[in-house]
Design brief:
The protein has 354 residues and is α/β, with parallel strands linked by helices. The chain has helices spanning 2-7, 11-32, 47-61, 77-85, 100-108, 180-193, 195-207, 216-224, 235-243, 282-292, 295-301, 334-339, 341-352, and strands spanning 38-43, 64-69, 94-97, 112-113, 135-147, 172-175, 211-213, 230-234, 248-251, 268-276. The chain folds into three domains: 2-32; 38-139 and 270-318, D-Maltodextrin-Binding Protein, domain 2; 141-267 and 342-352, D-Maltodextrin-Binding Protein, domain 2. The protein contains 13 helices and ten strands. Helix 7 runs parallel beside helix 13 (341-352). The protein is globular and about 60 Å long.
Length: 354
């Protein structure tokens, strides 16, 4: 009886149901369709430095930017995971990352589309991905920060290997080496030095009682306060303490060629920008990439203690900062460093995640 009643629903009732379902489907489609007048950006850059650039782009290009920022706690991992999870149906048009090895892994997973921006032609060859799916620009360098009250001028370390000297036992701070730029530095050292020499360096650091703290900012703050004499950190974190008038100095380690390790040098870790594969608004995404790689944004990022990589961008950086052309740059093959990532992570977890 129930079956008969179901089959005898009036034709008008059926039509009403069909109309309701169709209307719902149309609303769902419209709600999910990207607006042609906006670009969705996933950004690992600090909001305070990125938003002024975005506002100017919107005025110039008449395209709104819908940014999603990474949190400090995620260390650029959160947005990368979202890009991977959304690959079948991307929501994002452009990815601005600040961890180049994660960028390479995303490119290999198929997260990016190739795009050669006309504004990238002046950048050095090492700043573009081999598959041309990403372009590197403004960089941070891995540096040493020293407390000038605890370390006199002629005793300051000038090389990474100096940190294994027993005289610094228990006086050196380093962020958790499995995360952020500290992890990137480890993978790059494994590539440049070879696994055995790199492992030896980290084992000697551990034997020298290196102190592990939460992050690079905490390294800089604790050295500035005098809790530690020396720290491994990034240029932006060190510069904040310098400009605050704290008793600290910044050292670019291995800025001079090493007699035994010619590829060793200052590690510059760039930002990268890439067009997302199957981006909802690829045309708008290309315009945003062109804008970010133009000279003016790299000039502006210098105020955020980022070092321009376009040699034609001349900006007066703080005196303590060194551009790659004024130092020995670590001759790292980022692609090979990305190949070594998993093995390096395994080693670091075994030694430091205790």
């Amino acid at each position: 009886m129930r079956v008969i009643q179901y089959c005898n629903v009036s034709a008008a009732g059926k039509r009403m149901k069909i109309i309701k379902y169709f209307a719902f489907a149309v609303l769902l489609f419209v709600g999910c369709t990207p607006a042609a007048d906006r670009v969705v950006l996933y950004s690992a850059q600090d909001r305070e430095f990125a938003e002024p650039l975005f506002a100017k782009f919107t005025r110039q290009a008449k395209l709104a930017i819908a940014p999603k920022f990474d949190t400090e706690a995620n260390k650029s991992v959160g947005l990368a995971a979202e890009l991977l999870s959304e690959m079948r149906r991307p929501r994002c048009d452009v990815h601005w990352n600040n961890e180049i090895l994660a960028t390479i892994r995303l490119a290999r997973a198929g997260a990016y589309a190739g795009y050669a921006s006309p504004n990238a032609v002046d950048f050095p060859a090492w700043t573009v991905g081999k598959d041309r799916t990403w372009q590197a620009f403004a960089a941070r360098a891995r540096v040493l920060i020293v407390n000038t009250n605890r370390v006199v001028d002629d005793a300051r370390p000038t090389r990474l290997f100096d940190l294994t000297n027993p005289k610094w036992r228990g006086q050196i701070a380093m962020a958790k080496p499995m995360f952020g730029t500290t992890a990137t530095q480890a993978a790059c050292l494994f590539e440049v030095l070879g696994a055995e020499r790199a492992k030896q360096f980290y084992l000697e650091l551990q034997a020298n009682d290196v102190q592990i703290v939460a992050g690079n900012k905490q390294v800089a703050v604790k050295v500035a306060s005098g809790e530690y004499a020396i720290g491994l950190t990034d240029t932006d974190d060190a510069m904040i303490e310098i400009l605050a008038g704290k008793p600290v100095a910044m050292i670019f380690p291995d800025r001079e060629p090493h007699p035994d390790w010619p590829r060793l040098g200052v590690l510059y870790i760039p930002n990268t920008i890439a067009l997302v594969h199957n981006a909802p608004n690829a045309a708008g995404g290309q315009k945003l990439i062109d804008y970010v790689l133009a000279k003016e944004p790299e000039l502006a990022l210098g105020g955020g203690y980022q070092i321009p990589l376009n040699p034609k961008v001349q900006v007066e950086l703080p005196r303590a900062m060194l551009r790659p052309e004024n130092a020995t740059r670590m001759a790292v093959d980022f692609e090979r460093a990305a190949d070594m990532w998993d093995d390096v992570q395994t080693f670091l977890r075994e030694r430091f995640a205790r």
